[in-house]
Amino acid sequence: MSKLSLTVFPNYQEAAGELTSFSPSLLLQKGRLLDPQQGLDAVGDVRLQGDKIVQVGNNLPPLAGERVVSCQGLVLAPGFIDMHVHLREPGYEYKEDIASGSQAALAGGFAQICCMPNTYPICDNRSVVEFIKQQAAHANGAIVWPIAAITKGEAGYELSEMVELRQAGVVAFSDDGRPVINGEVMRNALEYSSMLGVPVISHLEDPYLSEGRVMHHGAVSTRLGLKGIPAAAEEIMAYRDLQLAKLVDGQIHLAHLSAAGTVELLRQGKERGIKASGEVTVHHLLLTHEMVAESGYDSNTKVNPPLRTEEDRQALLVGLREGVIDAIVTDHAPHHLDDKRMDFDGAAFGISGLDVAVALILSRLVSRGELSLERMITAFTTGPAQILGLTPPSLTPGSSANITVLDLQLTQEIAATALKSKGKNMPYLGWTLTGWPVMTIVRGKLYAHPSLA
Asked: What is residue 228's three-state secondary structure?
């Protein structure tokens, strides 16, 4: 009998570094296995071979040549998905590129991300889709799924070549950043996309109610002397697109919900049998328009849709807890510092979030009992996978070896120097959080956050 040859990491910190391939197999020992879809919540071991999970059990004996990582005290969950990310490439690589964004996703606990099409050129043709996929394949980061534009150039008039784009590998269609104003165009998009088996993602904004406005319309905007965007700007478009989806039996996904009224519209739409789903961003779950005042007009609190009231925030939380809202997203919108270093009116909209989103939810919602850990995991895994038609991540044998590992006790400060993303435009810098992703495994390759080593 041959002598057992093992490389054992007493804890995840000793495995820190770049995305690394372990051969022939990797054994994660004594972690809390938490897979809500399977009803699994137990301490156990997970064995990975190649890009698959091959065995789940208790006290699995190490194999010859196997790498072993002790995960005692850690949570092992199916690999997280962020279905709403701006990677900026092609065209705006000075803000973010596919490599830096996908590596920020790894550091933040995401095994898969979906990139929005508002690049330059717009992702509205096969060549841009293939470019994104090629760049992602060499990025050594999270898996990247492209989302294509609904209309050519996101101009809102002529549909993109949806069949060709779907064949090229896109998982959804969206003119994110710009609403599709023409109802007939949106109706046709829903009809075509339903035949292709993918959703249309609606950017909920009536530009006639929001143009030239910079924050939520309410008491705070009045006090600060800033032009406000009413919640009606979001609700009107949500109502229209739900009605259009009902008309053609299409699949509509409502992006970045921010208003209580929109949550109620989505609830009613689902109850009426409309094929509808919704997402909420981390910043809308945590922050309100009061943050604009409290931060002294910090342009890092400027986001579209805007931060709204505490009543809206609470409605979003209730909708998420009850399953009306299906997914949590970052709407990761990295900007160069120059885009934010100006007065509030002139600054760019958007918050960067891939590196810290999971930690923010763990520390500010889960640890305080406002959201269960199980519901958070579902909203980062099964929810987005089902919306996009992806295989739901799972810890069952035979599943893809995509795993997110969490340390619920780890306390760290958010520091700009530790962020993998080029985007440092977030209102969270300096916050101390307890609960962080510490390892991300993508297709059997392990990444441990280097700042923890």
From this structure: strand
Tell which residue, 441, 448, 451, has the closest CA to residue 111. Answer: 441
Q: Are 83 and 90 in contact (CB under 8 A)?
A: no
Q: What's residue 340's pLDDT?
A: 97
Please give the Cα distance from 217 to 385 (Å, whole number): 34
In angstroms, the CA 302 to CA 310 distance is 17
Condensed to tens digits (0 to 9), the pLDDT of residues 116-138 reads 999 999 999 999 999 999 999 99
pLDDT digits (tens, 9 = 90+) for 274-329: 999 999 999 999 999 999 999 999 999 999 999 999 999 999 999 999 999 999 99
CB 207 within 8 A of CB 181: yes
Q: Which two tokens stand for residue 270?
A: 């689902």
CA–CA separation, 21 and 447 (whole Å): 9
What single-letter DSSP state applies at residue 4? P
Query: How many angstroms separate the CA atoms of 121 and 323, rounded?
Result: 36
pTM equals: 0.95
CA 227 and chain centroid, separation: 29
Measured in residues, the chain has a length of: 453
List, by residue number, the catalytic residues.
Answer: 331
| pLDDT tens for each residue of 63-93 | 998 999 999 999 999 999 999 999 999 999 9
Among 72, 88, 14, residue whose Cα is nearest residue 422: 88
Contact 141, 102 (CB under 8 A): yes
* Strand, helix or coil for residue 385: helix
Per the CB < 8 A criterion, the answer to whether 325 and 278 are in contact is yes
